[in-house]
Specification:
It is a single chain. It contains three helices and four strands, in the order βαββαβα. The chain is α+β, with helices and mostly antiparallel strands and 115 residues long. 34% of the residues lie in helices and 30% in strands. The longest helix has 14 residues.
């Protein structure tokens, strides 16, 4: 079985919605990291400081065939094509350890349903 990491970066206020969309699309578990986003067209405050946006980075490891389905779902539901909507991408993984048998079986069922 081959795996991909799906990464979704969204505004912090959209985190709960993004988690629901990822789970509905087939992610069985995920990790959430907090961060700050800086944009290329950043506005300055009256003190000359930039405005930082709080971001949530959601990371999940899924079976490779599921990654594209998850990305499509996230793109539509989170409206990633709109400015400030967020960013999503996947990375192919060479080696993965720590995935339980139950999770592997869940991945297998999801892939078989797509066939």
């Amino acid at each position: 079985m081959r795996f991909s990491a799906v990464v979704l970066i969204v505004p912090e206020e959209e985190e709960n919605r993004a988690v629901g969309i990822l789970k509905q699309a087939g992610a069985t578990g995920l990790t959430i990291l907090k961060g700050k986003g800086l944009r290329h067209n950043e506005r300055k405050t009256f003190l000359g400081l930039g405005l930082e946006r709080k971001e949530s980075v959601l990371l999940c490891v899924v079976e490779k065939q599921m990654a594209m389905r998850i990305l499509r779902s996230v793109k539509v539901e989170m409206k990633l094509d709109e400015p400030g909507g967020g960013l999503a991408f996947s990375l192919s993984l060479g080696s993965v350890v720590g995935i339980s048998r139950a999770q592997l079986q869940a991945f297998r069922r999801e892939v078989e349903e797509d066939l």
